[in-house]
Amino acid sequence: MVRYSSIQVVECTHSPYIRPQTILYEEDGIAKRWDMIKVHDSVAVLLYHVEMQHYVVVKQFRPAVYVNAHLYRGEEMDGYMYELCAGLVDKPGKSVEQIACEEVLEECGYAITPSMLEPIGVFHSATGISGSKQNMFFARITQAHQRHAGGGVEGECIEVVHLPLQQARSFITDGRIPKTIGLGYALHWSVEKIKDGCD
Questions:
Q1: Total domains in the fold of the chain
Q2: 177 lies in some domain
């Protein structure tokens, strides 16, 4: 659990994950400038446990969400977000499918293979500041795929959450539940697919 009294906001002078840049360009004869942050692309996976009829998602503390909400907007929230299992595309020589499978094992504890991944889509996020690309997948799992309890690696504090299929629609539309756009879309895509009998 986060010790909120330990949170400080300081200037970022160096980061292995982001790099501020300025783009100079011309459009319709007008010289323009745009500031951006160079970041890694990412992968994300929505898991559906066939036997339990539950989605497997993750919940973790997001400092930027907390600071924006609590310090800058004056909103009461704890900064913990419901999200898809996800990770950065930062491993040279590995496909996005391989990276996705590694993230599923690390964060959620299930061993899956690239052949189990069904593409949901490829999306660009934060188009005004980074334009990073995310490959989003869906995978069906059973208890036989579980290897450990999940939770992440290297100091990650990730909670594995089971969301019943029957509660997915209300979860998507409940604005009081802090969730990412990607999770909302993936759940909507999947619920429609399963409810239509295409599972």
A1: 1
A2: yes
Side chain identity at residue 36, one-letter code: M
89/41 Cα distance (integer angstroms): 5
**Is residue 10 in a domain?**
no
Length of the chain: 199
**Containing structural domain, residue 137:** 42-195
Asked if 56 and 110 touch (Cβ cutoff 8 Å), the reply is: yes
Instruction: Give me the CATH number covering residue 86.
Output: 3.90.79.10
Pairwise CA distance, residues 21 & 100, whole Å:
28
How do the pLDDT tens digits run along the chain, 199 residues long?
999 999 999 999 899 889 999 999 999 999 999 999 999 999 999 999 999 999 999 999 999 999 999 989 999 999 999 999 999 999 899 999 999 999 999 999 999 999 999 999 999 999 999 999 999 999 999 999 999 999 999 889 999 999 999 999 999 999 999 999 999 999 999 997 776 665 5
